Amino acid sequence: MIEDNLLGFYESGKGDQFTQGVDPATGKLLFGKFKNAISSEVDEALKRSAEAFEIYRKKSANEKAKFLYTIADQIEEIGETLIERCCAESGLASARITGERGRTTSQLRMFADLIEDGSWVEATIERADADRSPIPKPDIRRILTPMGPVVIFAASNFPLAFSTAGGDTASALAGGNTVIVKAHSAHPGTSALVGEAINKAAIKCNMPDGVFSLLHGSGKDVGQRLIKDKRVKAAGFTGSEKAGRILYDLANQREEPIPFFAEMGSVNPVLVLPSALNSDTAEMLSSSITLGSGQFCTNPGLILSIAGNALEDFIGELSQRLSRIDPQVMLTEKICKSYNDMKSLSSANQHLKNETESIDTAQKNYATPVLLSIEGKDFLNNLNLSNEVFGPYSIIVKCKDKDQLNEILANLKGQLTGTVFGASQDFEDFTQLIDQLEKRVGRLIFNGVPTGVEVCASMQHGGPYPASSDSRFTSVGTMAIKRFVRPIAFQSWPDEQLPHELQDSNPLNIWRLIDGKWTKD
Amino acid sequence: MIEDNLLGFYESGKGDQFTQGVDPATGKLLFGKFKNAISSEVDEALKRSAEAFEIYRKKSANEKAKFLYTIADQIEEIGETLIERCCAESGLASARITGERGRTTSQLRMFADLIEDGSWVEATIERADADRSPIPKPDIRRILTPMGPVVIFAASNFPLAFSTAGGDTASALAGGNTVIVKAHSAHPGTSALVGEAINKAAIKCNMPDGVFSLLHGSGKDVGQRLIKDKRVKAAGFTGSEKAGRILYDLANQREEPIPFFAEMGSVNPVLVLPSALNSDTAEMLSSSITLGSGQFCTNPGLILSIAGNALEDFIGELSQRLSRIDPQVMLTEKICKSYNDMKSLSSANQHLKNETESIDTAQKNYATPVLLSIEGKDFLNNLNLSNEVFGPYSIIVKCKDKDQLNEILANLKGQLTGTVFGASQDFEDFTQLIDQLEKRVGRLIFNGVPTGVEVCASMQHGGPYPASSDSRFTSVGTMAIKRFVRPIAFQSWPDEQLPHELQDSNPLNIWRLIDGKWTKD
Q1: Between A487 and which of A151, A225, B460, B486 could a Cys-Cys bridge form, CB atoms 3.0 to 4.6 Å apart?
Q2: Are residues A102 and A221 in the same domain?
Q3: Distance, in angstroms, between B161 CA and closest chain A CA?
């Protein structure tokens, strides 16, 4: 395992501070002292990234696709060593991490397929018309083009799928950008193993030195230094609203502001309509709330329903189910402490009733699920309760009627998801509520749970602020590539000098919009 | 002519300050005292805009298209009154304004066609697969949806095409958003006439009160108040880098930051390769530099070439041609003063040589074209010369060789356009230079001029900062709509409750990406 930073292909560990992996289940330090990058190393990574961009952006789509396929292969080649290390650093179970590795390699291959297919570039052609009056129409052709070095901030809760070779890195590389990953301090060994795999793939595929770099260190030091550097042209982040906002502000306050996509989570409101106050719903929600110890951006943290006996029964059933679920270890000591602090704060709130028999004898770093209930009017007076609590935690709001429910929805900030449990015929009665939800979320779900984000072309994982910093983009699915590319138009440009995607003969056989018609001609 | 603000359909002029039109050619005040909006009026416009959004966003594509067609018709109905007022307020000639009116109505109809066609929404469908292992695949469908009230800051240099009913307004309305226009103080009468036409169209088409508002007043007061209001969900701006940056910062510093697209102009570098140092190039450039008194965002303000006799001859010819062009009136006294100040500053720069016989006996508010020349090394020591000077002004840089030219390009900030004059065979010799240009611009032009921005699907009018605040978007062409829409995904949603664009039967017969294939099925 490489304990140095990867400055392109160059391994460097000049600093005297380091990051160590910790097993949250035992509190034990894991082997490996990963050197925090010092400023000259950050600078060297940026230099190599900017230089490599000049070469990488000109690689053909097939060459870039091959690189992504090879990264996936190389990650699989690490075998059990990666699974073991990742489990030890995250406290997540082997089955989950094995599944997440599958998602990670699938994402890489999905982006490889996307760029190999080629149609994603939105090739748009308007041909010249010399006879147009009053002035002739020129030939103009437009395509998406990469932006430059992209900085990726790895997430703690997906040590593989949203980390070193996760969706952000895969989409940035697919778009033709070079990437510098700021490793998450919670899983430095996992990051090192995956980073090495990426570099092996880069060498195998004859990619330039600097196409990828991996830096250990703190967000405050290494992360902020990266985001302020003028060679960086875009950034991607998954994490807390607080950290995301700090970096977002830095990105925007630069002399040359850069696109900064931050996915900052949310409480993912769930509307349980009267027709759905049943065991099936309780079963689905209890699993979703506690999945991965509740450490998902899409965790259902707020359940809204209409007060009454049926709701009381539902709460009883849901809390019983939650109480039966064993405490699970959380990702880090800090995250678990923060979760327990929030739980204590909640207990101190006289309006919140703890519905779960929370036995706080759990081992260190283990979290017990908690379900709290509150009256609608009290929730409206305590809107800070709509802020995310990271962990197996959910508040159920007993609204006195539809109007109150509507008022609560109208007061919610932007959300990644909104879920409706109900029957088809409910849509008529609850139009206004569903409408309120629709305006505030990136994804609507009917009779399902928000956790389990499908990786595909139709996914939207983002949402109005603060769910994400820019609701016009997604960080999951093929469209995540759009964050890191910009259009460029070529006017009256010689055909043989155009990108292949725009040449008359359509040599790559891609879909193009020509004079208003979609065609492969 | 309505001298009040339009708060939706409600006309209100409570303030005691007002804006008056001025004929820059004569300095005379024009009739009409347009009341600057006071805070309660701004608030009322926002209230109506937010309320109207709830209704407008649910109008069908055909209803919205009809609204846009009707706006175009209503603008044409104003007839000569609009042309006369617009010419008087802008100093622009009748032919130009008539042409610009045509562009304005064409843009409205283009967006109407776009939404009537319907395929622009990027409908993407991934169907369920219950048999997928390890977990079943849910049905997920994604579409673009409007964002909410959008604020548009009108530009001075296109009093019709980038003002009240210009491309920004048309694209925001087409996307399903309500619009509040901050009228430009240089053409309040033109704004009032067009605003009235929009409201007439709104009433005719049964659009909600508040779908459109028009506010007079200063950017500092009315503009900043609008951009800070939490009901506003996005904004569009065309103007100076200074004003654009102030508003951009405000938009990003909000508790809930919003997308703010600013098109802030550039110097639009023109590379004249040795093979193109001829009369044709000089002819095209002299026309482009002086078109509309040089008051275009795409005005070629920086010409780069390689020193030598051929270049000296070229400069002589270009300056002669420019000297033969009569002074033209500028848009406002302030703009003309700023232009003359910059000219004076340039004269004081010992490295700049004035190549034009600038006779400064022009009438008040009339601008004489100016061409300045400078050695490459001196330009590199005075990089502030690469900032835009608004007006018929261009600097030609005599580079000692390709390397120096390359160094200059490498030091340029982001640009709307980059132009190459040369022969096809030059591409091989000058690859590196063209490459440098490509990385910094939104549009590349070969053997043509950057002015005359074609309005079509393949146009990119934007570029790396500071040409625009976000290079991933354009403010001209159909794709301008993408600034004001965001994706939303529907998971396992009942078919009859989906937007028509996503329903199984494809009732609107649009192009959709279904399970990875583009189809109209």
Answers
A1: B460
A2: yes
A3: 17
